[in-house]
Amino acid sequence: MDFLIKLAEGFIGMFQAGGDTFMGLVTDIIPLLIVLITAVNALIKFIGEERVFNFAQYCTKYFILRYTIFPFLAVFFLTNPMCYTFGRFLPEKQKPAFYDSAVSFVHPITGLFPHANPAELFVYTGVAAGITELGLSTGPLALRFLLVGIVVMLLRGFVTELITNRMIKNRQQESENIAA
Known about the structure:
It is a single chain. Helices cover 74% and strands 0% of the residues. It is built from 7 helices and no strands. The termini are far apart. Helix 4 packs across helix 5. The chain is extended and about 70 Å long. It is an all-alpha fold. The mean pLDDT is 85.
């Protein structure tokens, strides 16, 4: 009988934990995202959508800028997860690669700019704790973490863009073969 009681308590406890998590999202991240979305849209309207779009077009004209500066600005200013909305300034075929480069950068930026992804700061602080225990400064670690992150986001963006272009080309060829 005790087994059945513990099973029932565990079963309902699972849903209570889910409800607590949901309420945490409703009271923490959802209002934050709504305010961030509103602020970013207001800023874009204030600056002028055409100016922002032109700046984004300039930043994304060359793949090196598209997968270094553009995602860096997105993650730095909008933080995770709002940074992915910068993809709206890109053509559809470049959005997957932008997302891949931005998502790979949300951890490396936290060493120097913890505001960009405070929920995942534990990754950097875990590594930094070992460095601190050795009596070394965490400044060089944070800088190296950032620089490696920039290289990784460039590589991931470039490779993902190549894969996406290949997939688009294959789909077009399949469509032509079906039509013929």
